[in-house]
C-alpha cells in the first residue's frame, strides 16, 4: 500500500450542535469547538470530522444544506471556520467537513428556482418526473419513511425525488453542470486549508430510474428500492470524476458513507486508485443487544460482531483501509448497544473499543464516547426531536406494536441518544451552555462528566487516551497501519482476538465478552511461553498483571490485553 499522510488518522467526530455552546443560545458553535481543541489534542486525535455547519433550515440538523459556501449563523461565521482550521492546525489537527451532496435543502436557492421553472436550468439540478395514474412516478419508499416522491406545489402532475425527508430533494448527478458546481464548491473549501471531507450518503448519487412499481415491502404498497438507489452501476464514474477534479489536487482525506460496498467494488472504491481514501465499516451497525434477534444475549451478538468484522477485513484484504468506529451521530451509544444491562461494568466498557481499534484501518471516536456517555431513554415520544425517529415510531405502531412496545424500541435504538449535549462538568447543563440546551442533557452528567474523569487517572477518559497513545506510538504505528492481520481463536465463543504483524513487531490483541474466567492454552493464542516472557504489555483493563502461568493465559471476565510479543520469534510467521 502506498503510504499516505492520512493513514495515520485517529479521528474525532463532532456533532457541533451538541458539543459546546459559547453564546448562551443553547446551540453548540464553532467557537465552542475552538474552546475545546485542547481536549481533542489531549486525547491524541489528529483529524476532526465536523458534521455539517453550512446554512440550513435544520430539518435534519444540517444534513439539509441551503448554501454550500457559508456557515450557518447558529454555528458562527466564515471567520470562525477559518480560525478553527488555523488553530486546529497549530495543534496538528486537520478538519474534515461533511459534504452533503446527494441532496440539498428545499430552501436552497437552486431548488427554489427549480420549483419556479422545473423545466429550466435549475430544474435539471433536481429530479422532477411526471406522476402516473394519479399518483407518484413509482412506489419507491424514502429511507426516512413514506413515498420518495413529493408533489410539486401548484403543478398538475409533477413530483420531485427525495430519498430522505421531503425537505431534502435529491440532486441530479446525471447533470454535468451540477457535478461541476459541486467540484467547484469542494475546491473552494479545500483552498481554505481543510484536511478533506466525509461524504454523506455518497453511494446513493446514482439512481436506476425504473418506472415500474416494485413488489411492496409493507402494507402501504411502497418499496425501499435499495438496488435502484444504492451502489447503482455507473456510480463509480461520478465518484472518480469527483476525485480527479475536486479532491486529488489537494491530497484530501475523503471518507465515504458508502452502504453495502460489494467485494467486487473494493478496488474501485478504496483501492490505491479508488474513489475514496476510506469508507466507514458498517458491519457492526446493525447490532443492538435489545433488537428482538439478540434479546439481551450480549455473547451471541458479540460472536456475530466478531465474525462480521473479520469478514469485512477479509474482503478488503489489504487493498485499502476501512474506517473503524463504534459510535457516530446516527447510532445510539455503544455501551447501551453492545452490552445488556447486567454486562455493563468498568471492564466491559473498556474492552469494547479495543475490539476494533487495532485492526487495519483508520479509527474514529465520537464525541462523548471517550467518557462513556450513555443513552437517555425518554418517558414519551414528545421528548424526541428527530423526524426519522418519530417516523420509525409510527412504523412500529403500524406493524402492530403497542405504544409502550414502540417507545421501548425507540428508547433502545434512537440515533438521537448520541446527540444529547456533551457532558463537560457537573455544573448546570453539564457546562454545555449557560442558556437552555436545544436538547435535554442526560441527567447522569452530575457524576458522568469530562472534568471528573480528567481528575481521575483510573477513569475511562484516561483509558481512551492510553488507547490512542498506543495506536500512535511511533515504533508501533506502522505495524497497526500496514501490518498483516491474523485473526485468532475465532472458534472460541466470547473471544475476539487478533495479531498484527510485520518485520518490526508482533502484537497480540485479545478481548473477552465472557462474564467468567476463560483459560486459553498459550499455543492457541499462538504466543509461546518464550514470547510471553519477553513481551511488553501495552494495554490492559485490569489493575493487576495478566495471569500467565504454566503455559496458559487465564483471561479474566471482560478482560482486554494488547501485548507486544517479544523473543526471538518476533517477525516470523
Ligand atoms: C446520513 C447522515 O449521517 C444522517 O445523519 C442524515 O440524516 C442522512 N445521511 C441524510 O443526509
Ligand atoms: Ca451557540
UniProtKB/TrEMBL annotation:
Protein family membership: Belongs to the glycosyl hydrolase 13 family.
Molecular function per GO: alpha-amylase activity; cation binding
Entry's Gene Ontology BP terms: oligosaccharide catabolic process
EC number(s) from the headed UniProt entry: 3.2.1.1
Gene3D superfamilies for the chain: Glycosidases, Golgi alpha-mannosidase II, Oligo-1,6-glucosidase, Domain 2
One matching Pfam family: Alpha-amylase
Transmembrane regions: none
Keyword annotations from UniProtKB, A to Z: Carbohydrate metabolism, Glycosidase, Hydrolase
InterPro entries xref list: Alpha_amylase, GH, GH13_cat_dom, Glyco_hydro_b, O16G_dom_2
CDD domains, alphabetized: AmyAc_SI_OligoGlu_DGase
Domain of life: Bacteria
EC class name: hydrolase
Protein name as catalogued: Alpha-amylase
Amino acid at each position: 500500500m502506498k503510504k499516505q499522510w492520512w493513514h495515520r488518522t485517529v479521528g474525532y467526530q463532532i456533532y457541533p450542535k451538541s458539543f459546546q455552546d459559547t453564546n448562551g443560545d443553547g446551540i453548540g458553535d464553532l467557537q465552542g469547538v475552538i474552546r475545546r481543541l485542547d481536549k481533542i489534542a489531549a486525547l491524541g486525535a489528529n483529524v476532526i470530522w465536523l458534521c455539517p455547519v453550512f446554512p440550513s433550515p435544520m430539518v435534519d440538523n444540517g444534513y439539509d444544506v441551503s448554501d454550500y459556501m457559508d456557515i450557518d449563523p447558529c454555528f458562527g461565521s466564515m471567520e470562525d471556520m477559518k480560525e478553527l482550521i488555523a488553530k486546529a492546525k497549530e495543534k496538528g489537527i486537520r478538519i474534515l467537513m461533511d459534504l452533503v451532496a446527494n441532496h440539498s435543502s428545499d430552501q436552497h436557492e437552486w431548488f427554489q428556482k427549480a420549483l419556479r421553472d422545473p423545466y429550466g436550468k435549475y430544474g435539471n439540478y433536481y429530479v422532477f418526473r411526471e406522476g402516473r395514474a394519479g399518483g407518484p412516478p413509482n412506489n419507491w419508499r424514502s429511507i426516512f419513511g413514506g413515498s420518495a416522491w413529493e408533489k410539486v406545489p401548484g403543478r398538475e402532475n409533477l413530483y420531485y425525488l427525495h430519498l430522505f425527508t421531503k425537505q431534502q430533494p435529491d440532486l441530479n448527478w446525471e447533470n454535468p453542470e451540477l457535478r461541476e458546481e459541486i467540484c467547484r464548491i469542494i475546491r473552494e473549501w479545500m483552498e481554505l486549508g481543510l484536511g478533506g471531507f466525509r461524504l454523506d450518503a455518497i453511494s446513493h448519487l446514482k439512481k436506476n430510474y425504473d418506472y415500474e412499481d416494485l413488489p411492496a415491502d409493507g402494507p402501504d404498497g411502497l418499496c425501499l428500492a435499495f438496488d435502484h438507489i444504492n451502489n447503482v452501476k455507473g456510480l463509480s464514474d461520478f465518484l472518480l470524476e469527483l476525485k480527479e477534479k475536486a479532491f486529488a489536487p489537494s491530497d484530501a482525506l475523503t471518507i465515504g458513507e458508502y452502504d453495502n460496498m460489494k467485494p467486487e467494488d473494493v478496488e474501485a472504491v478504496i483501492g490505491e486508485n479508488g474513489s475514496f481514501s476510506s469508507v466507514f465499516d458498517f458491519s457492526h451497525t446493525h447490532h443492538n443487544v435489545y433488537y428482538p434477534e439478540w434479546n439481551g444475549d450480549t455473547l451471541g451478538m458479540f460472536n456475530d460482531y466478531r465474525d462480521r468484522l473479520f469478514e469485512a477485513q477479509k474482503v478488503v484484504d489489504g487493498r485499502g483501509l476501512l474506517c473503524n468506529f463504534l459510535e457516530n451521530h446516527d447510532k445510539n451509544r455503544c455501551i447501551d448497544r453492545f452490552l445488556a444491562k447486567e454486562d455493563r461494568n468498568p471492564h466491559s466498557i473498556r474492552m469494547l473499543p479495543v475490539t476494533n481499534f487495532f485492526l487495519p484501518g483508520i479509527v474514529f471516536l465520537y464525541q462523548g464516547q471517550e467518557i462513556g456517555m450513555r443513552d437517555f431513554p425518554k418517558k414519551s415520544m414528545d421528548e424526541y426531536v428527530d423526524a426519522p425517529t418519530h417516523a420509525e415510531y409510527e412504523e412500529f405502531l403500524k406493524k402492530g406494536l403497542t405504544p409502550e412496545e414502540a417507545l421501548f424500541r425507540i428508547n433502545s435504538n434512537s440515533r438521537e441518544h448520541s446527540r444529547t449535549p456533551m457532558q463537560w462538568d457537573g455544573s448546570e447543563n453539564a457546562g454545555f451552555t449557560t442558556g437552555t440546551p436545544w436538547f435535554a442533557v442526560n441527567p447522569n452528567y452530575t457524576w458522568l462528566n469530562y472534568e471528573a474523569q480528567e481528575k481521575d487517572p483510573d477513569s475511562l477518559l484516561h483509558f481512551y487516551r492510553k488507547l490512542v497513545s498506543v495506536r500512535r506510538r511511533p515504533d508501533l504505528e506502522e505495524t497497526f497501519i500496514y501490518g498483516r492481520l491474523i485473526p485468532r481463536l475465532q472458534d472460541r465463543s466470547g473471544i475476539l482476538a487478533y495479531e498484527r504483524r510485520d518485520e518490526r513487531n508482533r502484537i497480540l490483541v485479545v478481548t473477552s465478552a465472557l462474564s467468567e474466567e476463560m483459560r486459553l492454552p498459550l499455543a492457541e493464542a499462538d504466543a509461546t511461553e518464550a514470547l510471553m516472557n519477553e513481551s511488553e504489555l501495552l494495554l490492559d483493563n485490569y489493575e493487576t498483571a495478566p495471569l500467565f502461568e504454566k503455559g496458559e493465559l487465564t483471561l479474566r471476565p471482560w478482560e482486554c490485553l494488547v501485548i507486544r510479543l517479544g523473543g526471538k520469534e518476533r517477525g516470523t510467521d
